[in-house]
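Re-run with default settings, no changes from the original entry. Doing this only to confirm the output is reproducible before filing.
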Amino acid sequence: MSTEFQPFAIERMMSKWENVVDYNLSESGVHPMTLRDLVVDPGDMEKLLNMEINYPQANGIIELRERIAAMYPGSTPDNILVTVGAAEANFITLQTIMDPGDEISIMLPNYMQVWGVAKNMGLRMKTFHLQERLDWGLDQDADTMVSEKTKLIAVCNPNNPTGHILSDKEMDVIIAAAERVGAWILADEVYAGAERTTDVMTPTFWGRYDKVLATGSMSKAYGLPGLRVGWVVGPVDTADDIWARHEYVTISASMLSNHITRYALSPDVLPRVRQRARDYIRRGYPILEEWMKGHGDTFSVVPPQAAAIAFVRYHLDVNSTILTERLMKEKSVCIVPGDHFGLDHYLRISFGLEPDFLRTGLDRIHELIVELQG
């Protein structure tokens, strides 16, 4: 088995380009909030300004863990570990559950962090696939998703990059596969709350099966990516085991991030924050849709049910990485190539942005499309 390091392709590209280009349409969350937008009460702002910048409770302050637990029926603060983003949550969860040589089954397409970590950990890998012909639905039965050696099934729901929300039937198939072999389910649920086509919160895998580890963050459905706050929800003993790995990596999220997130998840504030994200998503998608229609048959897409991204198929004779590199270098626009999800001739385009910014960024992409078609 190769020990060559597998870079995280999408994050490598975004790390180098997203803050350099004029128009970043690669992010998968909505336009970020300002602290002033979030904290509207002067008294609450004053409390934040007077806060000592100390170490917080390493697994997350109790008030924050209580508010996260309230989103997962049947959980308590002891089921919650607060992490530095969902990226840390996913990473240290795999470190805790998996050993080199163990088998993992991964949903594709997917945000490829878990896939890359599995490669670097020396895990054996199975994959199962969402199908575009089924509007990115699941076309696989429980028996074929796992083997008797599968120790963990990794899913992303709502899905990145397609925006598909698993139906109850699709969730039941995944749970049946896990139950059949006693596998864990690692459910990356960072886009729950960022629904485009419904006001109903995407159901969590938590509580449907006893070996679920659900991760979330403030980055996507909340418009607060710079807080770098995520979490994992799991059985108490397992959450404590994951916490032990957390102390080797980051020790804790910052005191300010803990308290700002506690505020954002408070009962009076949370509905406003989620609605803001949905408003950006629902306002932005028609702009992208109209832009695609203006190019005739060049683009096709399954409209995303959730998230601020569309996974767009394009009908041009050019590789997706080459296309996006030309966009960055020639038009100062960053979008994500389908190659980063193992699917060429697709582009992941963000639309949860300020309308004028989105339109101008799309106009820059149009310029290159015209050149390619000429």
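Residues 243 and 291 are 46 Å apart (CA to CA). The first strand starts at residue 23 and ends at 24.
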